[in-house]
Automatic annotation (TrEMBL):
A single GO molecular function term of this UniProt record: glycosyltransferase activity
Pfam families attached to this UniProt entry: Glycos_transf_1
Keywords, comma-separated and alphabetical: Transferase
Boundaries of every Glycosyl transferase family domain copy: 232-394
Name of protein: Glycosyltransferase involved in cell wall bisynthesis
Organism: Maridesulfovibrio ferrireducens
InterPro entries linked: Glyco_trans_1
SUPFAM superfamilies in the record: UDP-Glycosyltransferase/glycogen phosphorylase (SSF53756)
Length: 422
């Protein structure tokens, strides 16, 4: 039970709510049930015009930061003119404000980065506009890039401690020394896979622990009594953002191989993204338009219905040119829990959940022929399905129950003085 007068944990997010980040909203919802009082600080307003139903269960207050440099200047100083704003007599006599502004300019002189300058101003917005009267005593950020930069800056300006959770792209697309610096100043750091944990431990300052906490899924939402056996025409399914790290071309080329082998199937893909046009064009180029259906982005309830009719889930994750990669995509766990066998790749933390030949089949990223072979085997080998599907469900229940992991996370918070209401 949350006490109205208890200290508040600020949670800095890139955007809220986001349809693709149910793991974060689930974490907030479960922490609240555990008795943690949270104030969400979002760097961006939602892009989608709908949300998952679970969002309605979250009680946290939500504050939105100005998302542009001009917006920060306008909100803080009433002008987009740097000098005019900083000389505003309303703040000239405020010694603490002046000291914070000095720190912001010092940071800008050191980095010369407009993005860094914006993150400092967003941090000042938090200190000036959000912290007063809020009872916030600790700042936690999700993702180790810009949200953690803002949290780190807000910590410098306010004196409050900060921590962060690192996920995937945010780890591998920035220089290791930048993450090392953030870890060194943070009170603690969390990450969502053993793969990530090992990497972060290697670059963390000595004595700074990294806590592994899987996202997990709400197993109560993913239940199925469907038959394990199947027959043609097969239903194949993918949920993914249209971005290079998801390896969708590998999946499509594998589907083309299945079609060339005379295997009768229909394919649905849920998702969207910056690479939408090239992704959909590849489907047409491969001559798969009559077999493939893009259904756009869908809320959780509609995705569940697609799981219930699917015979196979396929995902071709790979390491993108810029280093971006997945951790453990929750959709794999959801599929396994819904009695839908999975074919995926050996990238990152995926083998921690999908054991090759036991709870799914893994292939090397980019190897579409091996993926086609794996798809065909899972679809046609009914004896394998009878063994693999229940083993996959057991694996998810054993290691990916979010109610278990949220208690682990709450225990981590408590180690550092972030306690739930008694």
């Amino acid at each position: 039970m949350i006490n109205e007068n208890q200290p508040v944990l600020a949670m800095i997010l890139k955007g809220y709510p986001r349809i693709s980040e149910t793991f974060i909203s689930n974490e907030i919802r479960l922490l609240e049930k555990r008795g943690v009082k949270i104030h969400i600080i979002s760097m961006r307003k939602p892009r989608e015009d709908f949300t998952h139903k679970s969002i309605s269960e979250i009680k946290a207050k939500v504050s939105y930061l100005p998302s542009t440099l001009e917006g920060c200047l306008e909100e803080l100083f009433g002008s987009t003119n740097h000098d005019a704003g900083l000389k505003d007599p309303r703040y000239g006599s405020d010694q603490e404000f002046t000291q914070r502004i000095d720190k912001i300019w010092e940071n800008f002189r050191e980095t010369g980065s407009e993005a860094s300058f914006k993150h400092m101003l967003q941090a000042e917005y938090i200190v000036e506009k959000i912290l007063p009267g809020s009872d916030i005593f600790h700042i936690h950020a999700h993702f180790a890039h810009s949200p953690t930069s803002v949290a780190r800056n807000a910590s410098k300006l306010s004196g409050l401690p900060f921590s962060f959770t690192a996920h995937a792209k945010d780890i591998y697309t920035q220089a290791p020394e930048k993450i090392t610096a953030k870890i060194s100043e943070a009170k603690f750091a969390v990450t969502c896979t053993g793969y990530n944990c090992k990497y972060l431990e290697e670059i963390a300052p000595e004595g700074k622990p990294i806590h592994k906490v899987y996202h997990g899924i709400d197993l109560r939402l993913f239940t199925s009594d469907k038959e394990y056996s199947t027959s043609a025409p097969y239903e194949i399914f993918t949920v993914a953002r249209f971005t290079p790290k998801k390896g969708l071309p590998t999946v499509f080329k594998a589907l083309k191989t299945l079609a060339d082998r005379g295997i009768d199937f229909a394919y649905k893909i849920v998702g969207d993204g910056d690479d939408r046009d090239s992704t959909l064009a590849l489907i047409e180029e491969l001559g798969l338009s009559d077999r493939c259906t893009w259904v756009g982005t869908k809320p959780h309830e509609e995705v569940l219905e697609l799981y219930r009719t699917a015979d196979l889930f396929a995902l071709g994750c790979e390491i993108a040119e810029n280093g971006d990669r997945d951790g453990i995509p929750n959709v794999l766990a959801e599929s396994m829990a819904m009695s839908v066998p999975v074919v995926a790749t050996t990238v990152s933390g995926i083998p921690e959940l999908v054991e090759n030949g036991k709870t799914g089949i893994l292939v090397e990223p980019g190897d579409y022929l091996a993926m086609a072979d794996a798809m065909e085997k899972i679809l046609t080998d009914q004896d394998l399905r009878q063994v693999m599907i229940p083993a996959a469900k057991k694996k998810v229940h054993d290691i990916f129950d979010n109610r278990y992991w949220i208690n682990i996370l709450a225990d981590v918070y408590e180690l550092y003085g972030i306690k739930a209401s008694d």
